[in-house]
Amino acid sequence: MYGWIWRLLPGNLAARTFVTVVLAGLAVAVLWYAVFPWLEPRIPLDQTVLNR
Q: What is the value of pTM for the model shown?
């Protein structure tokens, strides 16, 4: 799959690398600012259970 994406990107090695970094950054930003805030109240990660 990654080879298919790499072949679809325009330009030479430097341009493809730049576009790949930008796309990866965009994916991280969407996850950080949209997906994780939406998901956080639905998953109780901060709650701890004490077994006594």
A: 0.68
Q: Could you tell me the two tokens for 5? A: 């994406």
Is 51 part of any domain?
Answer: no
Copy the structure tokens of residue 21: 């970094």
Q: Which residue has the higher pLDDT, 36 or 46?
A: 36
Supply the range of the domain harboring residue 17. 2-41
Q: How many domains does the chain have?
A: 1
- Residue 17 falls inside a structural domain: yes
**∠ CA 39-20-5, rounded to 5°:** 95
